[in-house]
Here is the input.
Amino acid sequence: MVILLQFILAIAGLIVVHELGHFLASRAVGIPVEEFGIGFPPRMLRLFRWRETEFTLNWIPLGGFVRPAGETDEGVPNGLAAAPPWKRIVVLLAGPVANILLAIALYALIFGQLGAPDLERVQVLAVEAGSPADEAGLQEGDNILFVGNEAVDSTQELQDLIYANLGDPIDITFERGGRESTVQLIPRDPPPETGAIGISMVHPRIAISGLEAFSHGATAVREQVSALASLPAQLISGQANPEEGRLVGYKGMYDIFSEVRSADITAGAELPAGINTFAFLAAISTSLAVLNLLPVPALDGGRILFTLPELLTGRRIPQDFENAVNLVGLGALLLLMIYINLQDFLNPVVLP
Here is the structure.
């Protein structure tokens, strides 16, 4: 029950941040906001009123909304629909931007606590008992420097060098406690599931400043956005498993959230508190931003698409037509959400 409440608060918080972006942008460009709702209607209670905006609490907790004045009626003076196109685009972009900024902050918090990977060094994370690496004397924490005469500066390069010499003796030079040593071993051919020499490897982490943490956070978000953008093409070409591109609903997200919360609890002192949860929320916040920017009617991206012709040519798409298309798009999205959430029960997400 505690995890369920945490999940509801976490997802609602991400959506409220999204709506807060719309709210602040509306205020910044002079468009009044009639209501800022936490949760979806029906309304539970009116929290307070600030200037022209009513802040309300609603019964359906997984969400939130902002209702600018004249959102779909260009006849309302100073309303959203009557505003110049650049103002409408600013307001529509602000929600996804808020989610991106939140994701960067969460990733920066993670990097600030864990440090950043030193991408020029490779460290042994664990050694399988009885493996070639174990018999040669490699230990957890050793830094791998060379395979033969080839310098190692990435986990992929180390793996490639090892797998290029299956069944043949190789020299591995490593650093331990400030001293360099060399051992010889023979990579297993064929390699078992635990690998040719029986190690798992990582890039060691180094402490970084707060500014560097935000830089790494921005990089993490950029890489996630790039991965999401390239996923459809990878699915079509068969480069990605269809399960990787599966959309999940609230139950699927709850299942994943439960796993990451359990991971945080069982990690104990090995990891800073809440690291896995922060990573989950950062990933969901980034995904929320990307999904809302898709050129689909009723989403922010679809509404921006309707605004671009006016920005470029000065000629506006009729408001009634835009409202009708957005209404149909909203209906289609609701049906899709119902289908996705049903799939969470009929075909539950299988977590690694």
About this structure: The mean pLDDT is 90.
